[in-house]
Amino acid sequence: MRMTSAAAALVIALGAGLLTFHPSRPLYMQQRAVAMRAADGVVLQGTLSRPRWRRAAVPAVVIVHGSGPLTRDDVRGDMRALVRLGFAVLTYDKRGTGRSEGVFLRQWGDSAETVLMQLAGDAAVALDSLRAADGVDATRVGFFGASQAGWIIPLAAQRARHHPRFQVLLASPAVSTGVEQYYSDLSGDGSRPAQVTDRRELEARVLAYAGPRGYDPAPLLAKTAVPTLWLLGDRDLSVPTFASRRVLDSLARAGTPTHTVVSFPNADHFLRDADGGPQPAVWDEMMAWLRTQGIVRAP
Number of folded domains in the chain? Predict the structure, then answer.
């Protein structure tokens, strides 16, 4: 018998019951809706996804968004990849987007710190909710996020009732919002013509930047006790990887041992090969690090 549509349901008989598969709900995961109340009363709507066949409690992550009015649909690819790797994953619509209540603050319409602190409070609520979820190992719960999430997640870790066990930051800045904005203006941010195309000149200008700093994460990063993995692309046109590495290297020399940095020489801001070549081994690096932290078991 032939399927009449790619979106048609595939029904598989399992014992005495029936299990229905649909492309938007892969067979390997089960999902349920989650509603979370932020500190100011705003209700955030989310989805908890977990491996369908795992009986024991599993490690879990909250995915924190990058910049922009994003919903849980915008991180669906990462969510599915993490569930396939054995994680429970909580995704949610940013306040003022999708089905979440509240007002989305345009960055940096108020101030960078105001926006980041509000988003960090929401992420902290999500982490607390995830820790209490059925089927989640509360001792192996952490954050996962990209780009702007690199500023938000360390702030959220401070505000959650219990600290996360780990943090995975992809293409994220360890520099201030002012430095990142200056770099993006010069580089074109990957979406417009660059003001400076010579790499050495670009790096020299950014390292010599003396303008407004905005929010600077370095003091908080120096104090964090949460093991943190930084996965960075050297050809990122949005985040100055070279400057972030300088910050993180200085923290290591000053005695902060919690930051692990992995750089991919040819990767862009999306951690894809900038020349269309083989994709960087982002997931392999993440899983290897999580094994060293005792978050996942060796295969």
Answer: 1
